[in-house]
Amino acid sequence: MEQTLEGTIIYGDDFEPINGRLTIEDGIIRDIEERKNVPETIIAPCFVNAHTHIGDSILKDPPYLPLEELVQPPNGLKHRVLRETPYNDLVASMKATIDDMVRTGTCAFADFREGGLEGVLALREALGSSDIDARIFGRPVDGKMDYLDHCDGTGISSTNDLESSLVKEIEGKTREKGKKFVIHAGEKDASDILPAIELEPDFLVHLTHAGKKELRAVADAGIPVIVCVRSNFITNSGIPPVQKMLDEGILVAAGTDNVMFNSPSMFPEMEFLAKTNLRDDRQVFKFCTLNGAQILGIDSVLGSIKKGKTAKLMVLNRNSGNLYGTKNPLGSLVRRARPDDIVKIT
C-alpha cells in the first residue's frame, strides 16, 4: 500500500529542513523529492526514548524525597511499591504509559525493568501488539537471571549498590547469553563511574557528576551515554555535563527516566535540554532520535528520514496556535512543539 506525505521534512542524519514529498510503500520510505509548494506541516522522525523505567507508572505522584529514598534498591520507595503492586495493576499502568509514548511520537524505547523474570514478562504483556520497538534490560532477583531469555540484557543500578564480585558475576552471565550489559553511574556522585567503566558496559546512564577524568575514561573506552536531564533536575542530582561529553567525542542520547518523576513524552525533554544545557537544536534533536537509535542498534531502520528506513514519522501542524509563525522548523520543533501539534503519526 502506497501513501504520500508533503510538507517541511526534517531530512536525513543532519536533520536539514527541506520542502518536499515522501512516498511510503508497505511502511518503508521509498522516495523523497523536493517540491516548492507544500502544506504547512512539519514531517519529522519519531523519537527514540533511550532510558525509561515504566514500571514506575504505578506511582506518578511520589513525595519530594532524596534520590536514595525514592529509587535506591532494594528498599527505596519505588521498589517497595513495585513489590506491593498486583501483577495486573502493574501491567495496566505500563500499558497506559506505552500508549502515551506512541501518542506523543515515540517509536522506540529502552527500559530498565525491575522485578526479575516476572517484571520482564509484565512489560512484554503490556507491550502486547503495540506499534513500538522496545529494548528491555532486566535485573536479577535473589540471584536468579532467568529473565535473560526474555529480554535484551541486564540493566543494573549503581555498582555501589552491589558487591563488586556479584556485579562481575551478573556481567559475565549476561555476556555468556550474548546480551547487552548496561549500568547507571554518576547520578549521586562520581564514585561509581570508573568501576562501571571497568566492566565495559554497552552504555552508561546519567554521568551527572562526571568530571574531566571520568569523561576522558568514558571516551577512551568508546562507551555511549544516555542523559536524563529532567529527572536529574527534579531529584536534585544536578545537570549532566552534556557539552563536555560532546567535546570528548562521546555518543550521547536522551531518555525521560522514571515515569514517577516525568511523563515519557520527549517534547518536554527536548525543550528542557535545549533551554538549560545545550543550545544546539540539531544536536538536541539528534539526542532524541538518531543517537538513541544508534546506541540501541536500530539506526538502520529508525531515527531519521532516509530512503529505505521504516516510516515512523510524526506530522505536525505548522499553523497550530503554538507553531503559527514558525520560521525555523527544527528550532520550533525542539524548543516549543507539543504533542497537541501532532496531526498524524505513521
Quick recap:
This protein has 346 residues and is an alpha/beta fold. It contains 13 helices and 15 strands.
Can you count the beta strands? 15
- Overall body shape: globular
Report the CATH C-level class of the largest domain.
Alpha Beta
Gyration radius, rounded: 20 Å
Q: What is the number of independent domains?
A: 2
Within the largest sheet, what's the order of strands?
12-11-10-9-8-7-6-5-13
Provide the structure class. Answer: alpha/beta
Sheet-strand content, in percent, reads 15-25%
Residue share in helix: 25-40%
End-to-end gap:
13 Å
Question: Could you state the oligomeric state of the chains shown?
Answer: single chain
Query: From the coordinates shown, what is the CATH architecture of the largest domain?
Result: Alpha-Beta Barrel
